[in-house]
Amino acid sequence: MNHAVILLSGGLDSATVAAIARADGQELFALTIDYNQRHQVELDAARNVAQFLGIQNQIVLPVDLRLFGSSSLTDEIDVPKDVPKDQIGRSIPNTYVPARNTVFLSLALAYAETVGAREIYLGISAVDFSGYPDCRPEFLTAFEQLANAATKLGVETSGFRIHAPLLHWSKAKTIRRGLELGLDYGLTWTCYDPAPNGLSCGRCESCSLRLQGFREAGVSDPLIYEK
Q: Buried b vs exposed e over 3-35: b needs ≥16 C-beta within 10 Å?
């Protein structure tokens, strides 16, 4: 088996990518980032997904981005709610965490070098998304070039490959593929602003995109929502 690092947040997308990578025959090393995000519950989801998929190696790495703030996920800023579906992705919302995927991929790259992995997987998509700049194909291409220019393994071997299998997939296609692979989406977490009773809010952009994906896939979402 090949070694591969998976950025595993506990969300629907990263869980699906982990299932895809496992089906591809990869031995997975999961990296979960505790960046002191508003939705800390996703850390438990990441652990549950890793256990469900039989991932033996998982690091939960603390990187406190709340010290920087400037995002509703890491600061005392309201998360946008009830955004019309046709407006999602047209502008970059305040849930954007500055340079988050650049930071996370850099950490995944360092982890990959230590375990001899030349494959890195992450669950980003440029379809059915909130318009984040670090979820675009241009970003992935640029980061892969950086990875191979800035590392010992990149210089001395054939280099790293950054895999984003969901990059051009809708949420519905993602969900259907995950179900084909036997993934339990009841273990995942998507909501950016959980309700006080612990339920998903059902109103943030992340919840809206997830719910739309399940509707279009023609299956029920196993999560319970406040709204």
A: ebbbbbbbbbbbbbbbbbbbeeebebbbbbbeb
Name every residue whose Cβ is closer than 8 Å to that of residue 10 and which is 6 or more positions away in sequence: 32, 42, 43, 44, 45, 46, 47, 48, 49, 188, 189
Which residues on neighbouring strands pair with residue 28, listed in sequence order? 4
Pairing of the two strands 119-121 and 57-62: unpaired
Residue type, 208: S
pLDDT in tens, 93-144: 999 999 999 999 999 999 999 999 999 999 999 999 999 999 999 999 999 9
- DSSP states along 142-202: HHHHHHHHHSHHHHHSS--EEE-TTTT--HHHHHHHHHHTT--GGG----SS--TTS-B-S
Question: Which long-range CB contacts under 8 A does 66-72 form with residues at least 24 apart?
Answer: 66/35, 66/36, 68/98, 70/98, 71/95, 71/96, 71/97, 71/98, 72/38, 72/192, 72/193
Compute φ and ψ for 4, nearest 5 degrees: -145, 145
Q: pLDDT tens-digit profile of 17-63?
A: 999 999 999 999 999 999 999 999 999 999 999 999 999 999 999 99
Q: How large is the average pLDDT for residues 3-14?
A: 98
